[in-house]
Amino acid sequence: MSTLATLPGNSLAKAHSRGSARLLWRASWRHARQHRWQSWLSVVGIMLGVMMVVAVDLANSSARRAFDLSVATLSGTLTHQIVALDGGRVDDELFTRLRSELGIRASAPGLRGEVRLQGRRFTLLGIDPLSEAALERRRPGFATEAGALLGLGLRTLASARGVLMQRDAAAALQLVPGAEVSLRSENRDTAVVLAAVLEGADAQALEGVIVADIALAQEVLGHSGLDSIDLRLNSEEAERLRAWLPPAFIVVDAGSDTATLQQLSQAFQINLRAMSLLALLVAALLIYNTASLSVLERRATLGVLRALGVARGTLLRLVLGESAVLGLGASVAGAALGLLLGQVLVRYVTRTMDDLYFTLTVTRFLPDYRVLLEGAALGLGLTVAAALLPAVQAANAAPITLQRALPEEYAWRRRIRFLALLGVVLLGLGYVLLLPERGSLVEGFVALNCIVFGFCLIIPFLLSCALALVLALTLRHLPQTLRLSLRNIQSGIGRTGLAVAALTVAVSVTVGVGVMIGSFRHTINVWLEQTLSGEVQLARLDGASGIPPELERAALALPQLREVRRQYWQTLHTDFGTVRALAHDGAAADQLYLKQAAAQDLAAFAAGDVLLLAESFAWRHELKPGDTLRYQTREGEQSVRVGGLYFDYTTGTGALELPLSRFRQLWPEQGPQRLSFTLTALADRAATLEALRTLTQNFPGAYGVAANAEIKALTLAIFDRTFAITDVLRLLAILVAFVGVLSALTALQLQRMREYALLRASGMTVGETARMILAQTVAMGVCAGLLALPLGLWMSQVLIDVINRRSFGWSMQHLVPWLVLGQALVLAVIAALLAGLYPALRIRRLSPALALREA
Amino acid sequence: MRGDTGEQHEQQALVRVSGLGHAYAQGGQAQAVLRDLSFTLRRGETVALLGRSGCGKTTLLNLISGIEAVQQGEIEIAGIRLTALDEEARTRFRRQHIGFIYQFFNLVPSLTAAENVALILELNGAPLQGAMEHARELLGDIGLGSKADHFAAQLSGGEQQRVAILRAVAHEPALVLADEPTGNLDAHSGQDMLQVLRQRLRAHGSTTLLVTHSLAVAQSADRILTLDEGGIHEHAGDFAW
Amino acid sequence: MRRRTCLQWLAAPCVLSACAKAPPLAEPRLRLLDVLGGDDTAGYLRASAPRAFSFPADHGPHAGFRNEWWYFTGNVDTAEGRRFGYQLTFFNSALRPPDSPGLSSAWDSPRVWMAHFAITDAQGRTHDAVERFTRENPGLAGANDGRVWLEDWELRFGDDSRLWQLRAFDAASGMGIDFALRQLKPPMLQGRDGLSQKNLEPGNASYYYSLPRLSTGGTLRIGGQDFNVRGQSWLDREWSTSALAPDQSGWNWFSLQFDDGQELMYYELLDQNGNAHPQSAGNWSSRDAQQTYITPAEITLTPLATWTSPAGTVYVTCWELAYAERRWRVDAVLQDQWMNLSLPYWEGAVDVSDAETNAPLGRGYVEMVRV
User: Fold this and answer.
1) Which chain B positions have a beta carbon within 8 Å of A309's beta carbon?
2) Which residues of chain A does B206 touch, with a Cβ-Cβ cutoff of 8 Å?
3) Looking only at Cα atoms, what is the longest distance across chain C?
4) Which of C178, C180, C35, C21 is nearest to C94 (CA)?
5) N or C: which terminal CB in chain B sees fewer CB atoms within 10 Å?
6) What is the pLDDT of residue A264?
7) Would you call B102 and A27 a contact, using CB atoms and an 8 Å cutoff?
8) How many interface pairs between A and B have CB atoms less than 8 angstroms apart?
9) Distance from CA of residue B213 to its chain's centroid?
10) Which of A845, A832, A847, A840 is CA-nearest to residue A771?
11) Do A309 and B68 count as a contact with CB atoms less than 8 A apart?
12) Are A399 and B62 an interchain contact pair (Cβ–Cβ within 8 Å)?
């Protein structure tokens, strides 16, 4: 009996099944298992992508928290600081006068310095526990158990030689309370006693800190005076204080310098993040590839299901679900791996920040676990998004009775033209975004991504045109098998174009970043050449009034030393914040790496009328030659015209060059901080350095003696260390791309297995077939490599002229390291070759008959 | 045939096609495949449809099963006008009321024989376990019980087609459409297959439209229709089976 | 005697959270005694035998002892009769023995200082109290032969030891004093000839004298408003090394200045049960400064009314005091003269009247500490 006869007429409207069936999932699962390699490659790709994003984010967030904690621990909650106008120390008695004459009680002395304990570096923080109480300063590590800390503070005060350390840090050095240790600062040892250890929730903020009473801190550091007097004031009190303050001192807003530093280090972190996101983008291409391939392979099955009455929505959900399962597993695994990698990366990031920006007192891994969730969600989301198009394709699969011979390849021909058009639009958008000279860093990265993605979209079209051209030109010259290889690339353009695009992006990243780093390194080198005059440098390290003239005379009396140039610097408080003001004797052009300065401006500089700005400082505050800069002096505010710009790659809050006459006027007692000597022709450099070192021991103060070569080597070593993390990331990005290429190429080749079997059946040898496959992948590798060069160079230009400029205000010379370009090409070919290896090997095991029957 | 009211039903039309026309776009021009086609299928009868390649037989099946939308004319099945249904509704209609048998079997390769049969039951709302049990039972009935857990690639062509028949009729559809079901089988397997088909159809009382090249197959039907040049003709129903 | 609490005050927890505005009401979590290693008196001088007092030298600091303080209280009025009470105290406490090795830094501070400052406004019915802590060096606080100071709060006394100057202004609370004081009676040596024995163990004692009557005049600021005032003050001076007796639970201290020119000082130590401890003691000074030692058996204190602090501690705000066949009523000018500081206590201006006739007889200050 017919079912229909028993059904009410409107039963169709409320069909009783949800339309999804467990058997469909079972079929999907079996399909995925049969194509295990493909599924695994996707999983690995996403996993690596997510791992990178999570690791970089974790490292960044950890480093940022370390930075914040360090700043907070060393400075705490303040509103203002009194510092010496000349960048020197604040007299101890100024604090007493502040308290007893002005009655400003929310004040505490600030002092810190670097010490070594058992060879390890620590920041010695000098505090007055009772003033801290009056200041109500909050800082991590001190926040909890205030009473206990006061007790400890008083105990250190009581014992006169007591210090406090964080519990783990003490344990790492196997120190227990009561232990006697010696702290080393500038070649002096001071015996102290570990009075107690600090523990509690925030104590880890004090990991790299030794806390001592201010008196003991001065004793250990070997000087009197303070770095600052730290204050919590309202604006009225600040005004009252400014009116009262002796001219040698100045009230500054707390935190303005650290804000600048934070901005700089943030820019560094955004750079890293962008790289990790590129890797994930490549992973998304991979997912798209896998999903669309698996849809293509199941075209017939999907058609049967459609004919059986499986709704489109069900198939859409099925394919999305498959990707989601892969994506979920891979994302979770990637997040877990990212947690591990993050702990490695954080060392690089913190070390970089330490080298470039700020002495961190916290170096431990402080993971922000939200990052794990975000990374996994990003991976999953991207996977599902990448599978959306294939899923729509699946849903639109024609019922089996309507299917004709593969229309895919033909559809792609039309599609690549559309994609190319879209690509051109994206490229145009990227170009336009980069046009304004200024703009945000984020805009810069958006533009960079537009360019990379736009280029990606054009690649299939370019590839197709190039192949058509090559095929047309080589009609009679190329062996037939090779032409077949090329034609295969051409006919499978949907897939080959994607593979080439993925490989191109990955390789172009290495080119772009490689060229950028190469250019940067080159620029630093040139800058060092330009600015390090003489051959041997003598510098005063303890920041006091400079190198005494007697020492200079004694040095020049050495037979090996010929000529001397002097460099001076002091802290200058400008209306754009605190900067380092430098001055040299001799012409500006000899001492500085000038960027922009007209002849008459240089003459004006020589006459003492204008000053020169470091490029990065000028960039940050949008200053240009002709503008006026105001700064504080003992005599009141002065304003000077900006005469020009010079290159400067020192990090920190900013620098400018004053004419020496003006510098002397401002700081008449200030001696040179650095002397650069030229050696006589016959002088032995090592012996000279030794002689200079011996000489300095007869003078008070701490000095450093070094040859230019050493300084240069050290600078470049720090530079290389900074970019070590980028190398790690580049490597990972290539790995992801490689997996992507491997997957795309292998899929392509396996899809053609039947064709190969046919060729085998019609008499082609195994070797010939394998060679044909390899020729095809190598051709794709060469294409990708060649395409990656212009994209990479463009990327490097954006990185250098836009990203770096917007991040740090540095401009650099472009240097094209041919080696990097050559490496990129080789890399692309090797990746492609490796990807072709599996199908080539498989063809060996493929019986022609079997292949035909499988169809 | 279960029944008491069989005779009555035989008089009723299950499928009513009137004025059906269909064209495909080819090179920018409409190419007419079916023109002004009208015929009726009665409940429970088996009708064979003969015709040369390309005469529009497959298109007719696609239209009746709701795979393709009707462009011109009217198809009414059990009083439901297919032309009034959207794609989604047609899909559900197909799932519940149509069984389809193909020349190339078209089993889902990643499912076993039993799972292929159970799939249509599960799609119609049966719980998986019950569907599997029923599928095994059906396979046992036609002597394929031992192959229930084999994948399509592990079955012979005849076996695959018998599984496909079970899949087409397992959910007791009102109408079974068969597109050259013996076309890909040798004579012996074709006979086996027809045997099974006949059995199953009898069990469920389904109406069947059988597209075939083979006169021998056509002769086993209650009626024979011939499709050519867009028109349909009926032969005398003098063949019984 | 009473001022031994300074040890605990210094160590109170909210020193770090600077609780001038909102001190904690909870039990102190930390005691300086613990910090300093308890009763370690090694290296310090002890008050073990009577000494000859010499003025003005003894108004200045006594290096070698662990603790020392200068404690002013007084009652003053404006010409229009608006009445105020005030308290200004400088405490200091050594962190390490005087001959222990120090550091060369200017900040090296063997001693820390604390000051309490409070004003009672009888008409406005307000009582405000603030405190300050600081290390001694570099010159933040200290004492010498003519001056005791903590930042900008200071006490000056010249070569003429009969003239004193007291100055303290607190910007945040808008209160301050700038007083000139003149000593009207000779020093009153407390205990036995100025040696105030805490218990039977030798050395557990302090040197203790008072200036029981100082005429006072100058400017008093409250709520940012200045008043010209005149009145009488009392100075307590004490220095010692030894630590608290463990069986104490608090004390009540009275300094009463009678209009007829006589004074009474009495401290009642409380044992763990709140009863008078046998070490309680006092002194009576006649018009011609003849002193009479008072033992606990000779005096009777009867509470008549109480006030409960926000922290839940009960303080007596009205007493009946019987001594030598006289009976007085001692009434707090204001119920709430609670010192809401790191370690809270009650200290405030009082009126003295005849218990039978209610005739006003004098003024004074009372301190109540519950540990």
Assistant:
1) 91-96, 98, 120, 123
2) 2
3) 65
4) C35
5) C
6) 59
7) no
8) 133
9) 15
10) A840
11) no
12) yes
Residue B61 with chain A: CB contacts under 8 Å? 401
Q: Please return the burial class of C176, using the count of CB atoms within 10 Å of its CB with bins 0-12, 13-18 and 19+.
A: buried
Closest residue in chain A to residue B203, using alpha carbons only? A1
Amino acid C179 reads F
3-state DSSP assignment of residue C238 = strand
Residue A12 Cα, gap to closest chain B Cα (Å): 6
Is this model's pTM higher than 0.80 or not?
Answer: no
Report whether CATH 3.40.50.2000 matches the domain B10-234: no
- Please tell me the distance from the alpha carbon of residue A163 to that of residue A77, in angstroms, as a whole number: 23
What SS3 string covers chain B?
CCCCCHHHHHHCEEEEEEEEEEEEEECCEEEEEEEEEEEEEECCCEEEEEECCCCCHHHHHHHHCCCCCCCEEEEEECCEEHHHCCHHHHHHHHHHHEEEECCCCCCCCCCEHHHHHHHHHHHCCCCHHHHHHHHHHHHHHCCCHHHCCCEHHHCCHHHHHHHHHHHHHCCCCCEEEEECCCCCCCHHHHHHHHHHHHHHHHHHCCEEEEEECCHHHHHCCCEEEEEECCEEEECCCCCCC
Instruction: Determine the distance from the C-alpha atom of residue C249 to the mean position of all C-alpha atoms in its chain, rounded to a whole number.
Output: 18
The H or E element containing residue A349 is helix A312-356
Q: Closest residue of B to A303, CA-based?
A: B106
Q: At what angle do helices A753-761 and A818-845 cross, to 10 degrees?
A: 60
pLDDT band for position C27 (cuts 50, 70, 90): very low
The residue ranges of every structural domain in chain C are 2-37+57-370
* Interface contact C103, partner A, CB < 8 A: yes
Please judge whether A34 and B110 are an interchain contact, meaning their C-beta atoms are less than 8 angstroms apart.
Answer: yes
Question: Distance (Å, rounded) from C-alpha A510 to C-alpha A504?
Answer: 10
Interface A:C, ≥3 CB–CB pairs < 8 Å: yes
- Contact flag C36-A147 (C-beta cutoff 8 Å): no
Nearest to B61 among A9, A310, A401 (CB): A401
Query: C33 pLDDT band (50/70/90 cuts)?
Result: very low
Q: Which residues of chain A have pLDDT under 50?
A: 1-19, 143-146, 851, 853-855
Residue of A nearest to C30 (CA): A147
| Residue that has been written with the tokens 């003969």 in this structure | B50
Boundaries of every domain in chain B: 10-234
How do strand C345-354 and strand C326-332 relate by DSSP bridges?
antiparallel
Token pair recorded at residue A104: 């400003």
Is C3:C27 a contact under the CB 8 Å cutoff? no
Do residues A677 and A536 make contact, with C-beta atoms less than 8 angstroms apart?
yes
Nearest C-alpha in A relative to C109: A157
Residue C171's pLDDT is what?
85
pLDDT score of B215: 78
Interface contact flag, A147 C32, Cβ < 8 Å: no
The CATH architecture that domain C2-37+57-370 belongs to is Beta Barrel (2.40)
Which chain C residue is nearest to residue A103, measuring alpha carbons? C152
A583-641: per-residue pLDDT in tens?
Answer: 888 777 777 888 888 888 888 888 888 999 988 888 888 888 989 999 888 777 888 99
Of the partner residues A96, A135, A158, the one whose CB lies closest to the CB of residue C96: A158
Ramachandran bin of C312, using left for φ above 0, alpha for ψ from -120 to 50, beta for the remaining angles: left
* Interchain touch C–B (≥3 Cβ pairs closer than 8 Å): no
pLDDT in tens, C169-194: 998 889 999 999 999 999 999 888 88
Q: Hey, are the CB atoms on A311 and B88 less than 8 Å from each other?
A: yes
Interface predicted TM-score (ipTM) over 0.90: no
Spatial CB neighbours of C262, under 8 Å, sequence gap ≥ 6: C284, C285, C286, C287
The Cα A788–Cα C217 span in angstroms is 92
Tokens 């993971």: give the residue.
Answer: A367
